[in-house]
Fold:
Amino acid sequence: MRTCILFLLTSLLLTAQSGGVFSSPQGQPTASPAQSPPATHASPDAQQPDEAASTDQFRAAEEEGVKHMLVSQIEAWNRHQLEGFMRGYWRSPDLTFFSAGTVTKGWEPTLQRYRQRYQSQGKEMGQLEFQDLNIDIVGRKAAVVTGSWHLTMSDGSNPHGLFTLIVKKMPGGWRIVHDHTSAAE
Structure:
């Protein structure tokens, strides 16, 4: 399982890079070797103050974009609009959703899974909240998000668990391309 996730992360990172920009091990954008400036006497990891500020601004803006997508999902869920919640997911047959020991592949099957679990006879959606969010921008068009989810149901129960999302920046904004969600026992 770990090998599969590492492979997915590596593949996503490699495909998310564009315009000759790659991420250093610290996650900082660096020029590709073909575009590198001439050698200087400065440390190879040294950044000019303007570069560091620009990188920080980029990261902050991208994190805000990811947060916006997640907040939109929460708002749609809490209005009991699953289709609105699903706008945060990549609408593709290649979307993957791992949960409860099963793999769901594709946007439509993922929507059906949510409907079965939260909108079928005798089921409810409750009120959703995300906590402990960590957004790691790993490239110009990719991020990994971890956090916890909490539902408050009308009967007072509180299902909850953890999630890891791989999100990708697409023409319509940030979208979840892989979701691995677990429920606490």
Notes: The radius of gyration is 19 Å. Strands lie at 21-23, 29-31, 96-99, 102-105, 127-139, 142-152, 160-170, 173-183.
